[in-house]
């Protein structure tokens, strides 16, 4: 039974949050602690519900040896009490999550980038940019994953 439930959130759930989910799942698998977690991702917007991850995001994960499998979904009211940690990619996501939050929610809402040891707090949306944005996101997600796991007491 999972002890820690983590939801990664961006705007459309096809680039950043799916990558964060994949990187996190890969990291906990490598550490042999995947049964201790329940992990998912979602978007604050409804634009891409049911879509596969962006091909560039999937390719970036694949070339780094990280499997990715996800269908986009939107954050729902139940997420706020189902998950312990809802980690988003930028300040706009955080504002939207707080605006959407039901009364009495129990999840911790935080920007994933607050865990970046390099202090790179914003995981920028690479959707309209070049491949370099996806590579940068992958590096950020990797650093943030390691630091977040460390904050939970995992090496």
From TrEMBL:
The keyword Ion transport does not apply. GO terms for cellular component: cytoplasm. It catalyses: O-phospho-L-tyrosyl-[protein] + H2O = L-tyrosyl-[protein] + phosphate. Signal peptide: none annotated. The keyword Cytoplasm applies. GO terms for molecular function: acid phosphatase activity; non-membrane spanning protein tyrosine phosphatase activity. Pfam families: LMWPc. Residues 4-151 form the Phosphotyrosine protein phosphatase I domain. CDD domains: LMWPTP. It comes from the Eukaryota. The active site is at residues 10, 16, 125. It is found in: Cytoplasm. InterPro entries: LMW_PTPase (IPR050438), Ptyr_pPase (IPR023485), Ptyr_pPase_sf (IPR036196), Tyr_Pase_low_mol_wt_mml (IPR002115), Tyr_phospatase_low_mol_wt (IPR017867). Keywords: Cytoplasm, Hydrolase, Protein phosphatase. Belongs to the low molecular weight phosphotyrosine protein phosphatase family. This is Phosphotyrosine protein phosphatase I domain-containing protein. It comes from Mortierella polycephala.
